[in-house]
Design goal:
The chain is an alpha/beta fold. The chain has one domain: Rossmann fold. It is built from nine helices and five strands; from the N terminus they run βαβααααβαβααβα. Helix 1 packs across helix 9 and helix 3 runs parallel beside helix 5.
């Protein structure tokens, strides 16, 4: 089990995907779960501040709904951050994530509370980050590539607002687990970041196997 946490546009999703390919493991972007809940809640005409309505949407979420292209938009990211503050939403999605993580052979999960709440016993934990400015530039370029017209300054404001909301919420706030290895991707290419992540995971596996043999 590999837990990859970090703020928006830090590179954690790409790194998680690369790790899945390197080690032959399935990958779950848990952020898509919250994006889906936000989109479904909005489509139903319910308020994003209505915890009961958002939790109801989370309770009926299925894996095939995660393929909706609408979940990749800037708007969906904002919706996700708003519904993620609700404890009942997080509770409803907990079993979905646990089931994925318990697959035979292991899995890679990326999000904001994987190493602290979802899989605190994961043998390999990474906390991926970068400066807000670099993350905003990455997300801005990504949105442009998707055909969305948005100013860089607006994206930077989104990033800072999401950081504050995700880090300050009462339910499972975004934070680095004490035993998670920090990976700052500010000045790294994706190839260099993925290689650094691989080395972190391989070192964690060696420690885990040694501890298992000693028991």
């Amino acid at each position: 089990m590999i837990a990859v946490d970090g703020p928006a546009a830090s590179g954690k999703g790409t790194i998680a995907t690369r790790l899945g390919a390197m080690f032959g493991l399935p990958v779950l972007d848990t952020g898509l779960l919250y994006r889906a809940v936000g989109v479904l809640t909005q489509r139903a005409g319910d308020s994003l501040d209505d915890e009961g309505a958002a939790a109801a949407a989370a309770a009926i979420l299925t894996a095939d709904q995660l393929d909706d292209p609408a979940l990749r938009t800037r708007a969906a990211g904002e919706l996700a951050s708003r519904v993620a503050v609700h404890r009942r939403v997080r509770d409803a999605l907990l079993e979905f994530q646990h089931t994925f993580a318990r697959q035979d052979g292991g899995a890679v999960l990326d999000g904001r509370d994987i190493g602290t709440v979802i899989c605190p016993d994961a043998p390999a934990k990474l906390y991926v980050t970068a400066t807000p400015q670099v993350r905003a530039e990455r997300r801005w370029k990504q949105l442009q590539g998707q055909g969305e017209t948005v100013a860089y300054g607006d994206v930077l404001e989104d990033i800072r607002r999401r950081d504050a909301r995700d880090g300050g919420r009462d339910a499972a706030p975004m934070t680095r687990a004490p035993d998670a290895q920090l990976l700052d991707t500010t000045d790294l290419t994706i190839e260099a970041a993925a290689d650094a992540a691989r080395r972190i995971v391989e070192a964690a596996r060696v420690r885990w196997e040694a501890a298992k043999a000693a028991d």
